[in-house]
Amino acid sequence: MSNRQAEIAAALDVVPPFADQTVLIREVERRKAFIKSCLRNAGLKVLVLGISGGVDSSTAGRLAQLSIEELRQETGDDAYRFIAVRLPHNVQHDEADAQAALQFIRADIEDCVNIAASVQGLVEQVDHLDPLNAARRDFVIGNIKARVRMVAQFAIANAHNGLVIGTDHAAEAVMGFFTKFGDGACDLAPLSGLVKGQVRAIAQYLGAPEQLVFKVPTADLEELRPGKPDEEAHGVSYAEIDAFLHSQPVSEHAYATIVRTYDNSQHKRQLPLVP
């Protein structure tokens, strides 16, 4: 273990490896208690989350639904609701997985907002995109998609006086693998501090289908590379990222890549700079 590994793990409040199933269950209960306390402290009764069809949103969504059901039972107040919203850009290539995620989550309310027209409308008005080469333009538009999804979720939450859930966890946070003020924007992030393997373990415990638990993770924001694996973008595997965050030995390449990416993406994990 290096000093940087320990420093980064502490900064991200990384949860130690689950020693056994009892520890995992305790962590699930702690996360549900956190979700419930966020709503109670805000004096609100509705949660909103975008469902992509990946393990992260599936896990966060099921935790949210269970938390809402417990709140209804504990308070006798049927106004508590969880809204799971699909946010495809035209037709999503892995729509079957998104539908499987919804079936697993069993949200109180399901909605769908297709963001394609909004994204295209904005792109048409931003002339600064025109001179970009195809790859760079595709990348910028991918971030626009993430930010439009954020706007849609907050619009739904605002309409219901609710809170927006984010799906960021330690393995994504360390790599800065989220769009600033896009999918990185939320009111609460119940998966924070978990590594990818722990998210998968919780999903499995909650009964998620294997196709979602072990699905190859992808942000799926680029038209030129639909379904591009996260690990290809990272340059390291999630297994290596998890090991790094748990202060376990990793290759020199993985260590250097993770530390460099963490340092370069520091601005994403901070509030706006002020004088």
The CATH superfamily appears as HUPs
H/E element sequence:
HHEHEHEHHEHHHHHH
Query: Based on CA inertia axes, which overall geometry fits?
Result: globular
Reported by name, the CATH topology is Rossmann fold
Spatially, the strands of the biggest sheet line up as 3-2-1-4
Number of strands: 4
Structural class designation: alpha/beta
Characterize the largest beta sheet: strand count, sense, and whether it forms a barrel.
4 strands, parallel
CA radius of gyration is 19 Å
Strand content: 5-15%
The total count of helices amounts to 12
Low-confidence stretches: none
What is the CATH class designation? Alpha Beta
The overall pLDDT, averaged over residues, is 95
InterPro entries: NAD/GMP_synthase (IPR022310), NAD_synthase (IPR003694), NH(3)-dep_NAD(+)_synth (IPR022926), Rossmann-like_a/b/a_fold (IPR014729)
GO cellular component, one term: cytoplasm
Keywords: ATP-binding, Ligase, Magnesium, Metal-binding, NAD, Nucleotide-binding
Binding site for ATP: 50-57, 167, 196, 218
